[in-house]
Amino acid sequence: MTMIQIRTVDQLRIDGSRVFYRVDYNVPLEGTTITDATRIEETLPTLRLLRERDAAIVLASHLGRPKGQRNDTYSLKPVRAKLAELIGANVQWADECIGPDAEQKAARLKSRELLLLENLRFHVEEEENDARFARALRKLADDYVNDAFGASHRAHASIEALPLLYESDHRAGGLLLAKEIEFLQKITDVSDRPFVALLGGAKIAGKIEPLQALVNRADTLLIGGGMANTFLAAKGINMGASLVDRESIEVAKRISAARIILPVDVVLEDSSVVDVSKGLTEKQKALDIGPRTVAKFAEALKKARTIFWNGPMGMFEKKEFAKGTMAMARAVAEADAITVVGGGESVEAVNASGYADRISHISTGGGASLEFISGVKLPGIQVLRAEG
Ligand code: ADP
Ligand code: MG
User: Fold this and answer.
1) How far is the CA of 373 from the centre of ligand 1 (A)?
2) Element (DSSP H or E) covering residue 345
3) 51: which residues sit within 8 A by CB, 6+ positions away?
4) Residue 256: what pLDDT?
5) Which residues neighbour 303 within 8 Å (Cβ) at sequence distance 6 or greater?
6) What is the enclosing helix (H) or strand (E) of 145?
7) Pocket test for ligand 1, best of 227, 243, 289, 325 (most atoms within 8 A of CB)
């Protein structure tokens, strides 16, 4: 595999220019309250660098799925307030991401000042990668910087069409994007072995490519959670009323390899533990990995020098079924290895475990991180690749 090299923000000659900064401020909201500001915090290093270089910064993001319609539920206004608080500066606002008002505000923006644009996805053209929409955005700034890793697997206007309207020495990845690439590349070009992949979550469907990629590269694959149910069912074990991804049974049969280690015991709905070898009865549901499996997986993780983790080991949202996932968070954190965690719920679980600060890299992009390790070329990264 060839190393992916992108032009990074520190290589741009900014000196007081206006920078279009594409971020992923798709934060979880309860009404207008941001319940987790990680995605905003992660952009502070790039914002500080841009301000040190006297840039005037035009920030743009998507939020939720407003499907091309203006919808107050998906307004970025709550983000404006939080960002101002975190960076300790006023954040100006444009109620439309394109058009005369945004252009005027961007043109008047002074060095070190910030302007946040309303949700890009209020315009259907964003998700259509529309050239005219991109040209309208292009009017707002002289340079382009992308830190929206979680959106970089999408060929959307602000991710692909827009940067292509800038000369290659005026477009770059931010510090967050560069960090994502650096660590995910350690998973695709493993140099420190053994490489152990820990996989779980609800389904196999939608994760077949990353699964196949990891089967090809990992020395050991530890599979738990709902994903393991499907693999066990594929071996002819009766999984009772457990979540089984029926459509993926054939895939699971095809993928089965000696390097795959499956659970030997599981926790049922009533918290009892059973061995899987005998199979479950019709009404029994596997909701977590059992203690013998935890010990087995932990032992493999202890020997690892590189670890990639995607997918919880059980229905961790309920405390009774979180033990397996929390034990894995600890084992991954304690391993003397490069450790990377990706995936929406997986990241949530790691944060809840209290071990997050002992993980080498927690990816901010769920789908994007899985596509990256599958070897798929992400449009938002491709346009930023350094030539030569
Ligand atoms: P990620 O978002 O990290 O990629 P997924 O979306 O694939 O992970 O899966 C996360 C979900 O899988 C969690 O909500 C969890 O409750 C569920 N899950 C994991 N194991 C089981 C299981 N044995 N039975 C039912 N649900 C499970
Ligand atoms: Mg998920």
Assistant:
1) 20
2) helix 344-353
3) 57, 112
4) 77
5) 194, 196
6) strand 143-146
7) 243
